[in-house]
Every structure is written in structure tokens, then in C-alpha cells.
Amino acid sequence: MEWSTLVGAGVLLVLLGFALIFLGVLRASLEGGGRVEGGGVVMVGPIPIVFGTSLRAAVAAMVLALALMVVALLLSRGLPVR
């Protein structure tokens, strides 16, 4: 598979993600009465800084960050450098 195909697929997936988030926010705003939680992780070197509006959001952010770190490690070890 060529790199241009992979780049195109990546751009398409990012645009699809933006569209889904937009539609979700639009739907939630029209229905009303929803509760919003958010969280994130900032990596400063090997030290993670976790934040969230609730414990549930912070734990979800930590789990997703750990999964992304594992995927990044596997991809960095498995792809040949040209």
C-alpha cells in the first residue's frame, strides 16, 4: 500500500471524526438536559499530567492515553525506516 493512500485514508478518518463530534454536539444541544464531562492527559516527557471534570473522565483519559502510548510504541518498533 502506498503512503499517499494511507495519508488520504488518515485525512478522511480525521474529517469523519470532526463530523461525528460536530453532529454529537449538535444533537446534544438540541435535546438539552445533558451532562458534559471532559478530561485529558498532557505528557511532559515521561510524566503524565491528568485532568478532568470528574474522576470518571480522568480515569477514561488515563486509559486512552495508555492505549495510545502502547500503540505508538508498537508502531515505532514495527515500521522499517527507509
Account of the protein in words:
This protein is α+β, with helices and mostly antiparallel strands. The longest helix is centred in the first third of the chain and has 29 residues, at 3-31. The two termini are 15 Å apart. A two-stranded antiparallel ribbon has the order 1-2. The protein has helices spanning 3-31, 55-78; strands at residues 39-44, 47-52.
Strand order of the largest sheet: 1-2
User: Helix fraction?
Assistant: 55-70%
**C-alpha termini separation:** 15 Å
Number of helical stretches of at least 4 residues: 2
User: How many domains make up the coordinates?
Assistant: 2
**Structural class designation:** alpha+beta
Approximate strand percentage: 5-15%
> What's the total count of β strands?
2
Question: Which regions contain 5 or more consecutive residues with pLDDT less than 50?
Answer: none
- Main sheet overview: 2 strands, antiparallel
What gross morphology would you assign?
flat
Order of helices and strands: HEEH
Kindly state the mean pLDDT as a whole number?
86
Radius of gyration: 17 Å
Name the descriptors.
single chain; two-stranded antiparallel ribbon; 65% helix
Topology:
Blueprint: H1 3-31, E1 39-44, E2 47-52, H2 55-78
Antiparallel strand pairs: 1-2
Task: Please outline what is shown here.
The chain has 2 helices and 2 strands, in the order H-E-E-H. It has helices at residues 3-31, 55-78, and strands at 39-44, 47-52.
